[in-house]
Write a structure and sequence with these properties.
Elements (H helix, E strand, L loop, with lengths): L1 H31 L3 H14 L4 H37 L5 H30 L4 H45 L1
Length: about 180
């Protein structure tokens, strides 16, 4: 009985951690999207971390203002197809063809967003000094390492949760 309690507490902890990570990622993505994406987070990062000059800040704002009209409809398309997929999921009957159609549309929209983001980043990098570029490259390398560790942690947690579920399913059979 005590081992079942320990397993249940462990499973609850794993599920809580998984939910917390998922919620934090959703909040972070929501904060990064919309009209404030470039005016807020990205500009703040470029300004503070890379110590941009006033002239560089003005150039970044010009780049963002120029690219914003191309990004806004893409973000709206992503939100709309996400909503449609959620509605299909909640409908009670699964329509794979409709979900696949929406997923394909989302993939095409995401491709366009990635291209736009790369274009914007390329334009912004052109205004940086060699020292700022080095600092940015170092930051990106560290960020990539953190992301890899995060993905490994998620894999570990998923495998651990699967083992716990399997163990719990086997318990009643052994008694």
């Amino acid at each position: 009985m005590k081992s079942k309690s320990v397993l249940l507490v462990g499973l609850a902890l794993v599920l809580t951690l998984t939910a917390a990570v998922g919620i934090s990622q959703t909040v972070r993505r929501a904060h990064m999207h919309g009209d404030g994406m470039f005016e807020g987070h990205m500009l703040h990062f470029f300004t503070d971390y890379l110590d941009l000059t006033d002239a560089q800040q003005a150039q970044v704002k010009d780049i963002m203002a120029k690219e914003k009209p191309a990004l806004k409809p893409l973000m709206q398309q992503m939100a709309q197809s996400h909503q449609q997929i959620r509605e299909l999921t909640m409908a009670g009957t699964f329509d794979e063809a409709k979900v696949r159609t929406l997923a394909t549309q989302q993939a095409q929209t995401m491709t366009e967003m990635i291209v736009q983001k790369a274009r914007i980043e390329s334009e912004m990098i052109q205004i940086l000094t060699p020292e700022q570029k080095t600092k940015l490259n170092d930051f990106m390398a560290k960020h990539e390492q953190r992301m890899m560790k995060h993905m490994q942690l998620n894999d570990f947690m998923a495998k651990h949760e699967q083992r716990m579920m399997k163990h719990m399913q086997e318990q009643p059979q052994n008694q």
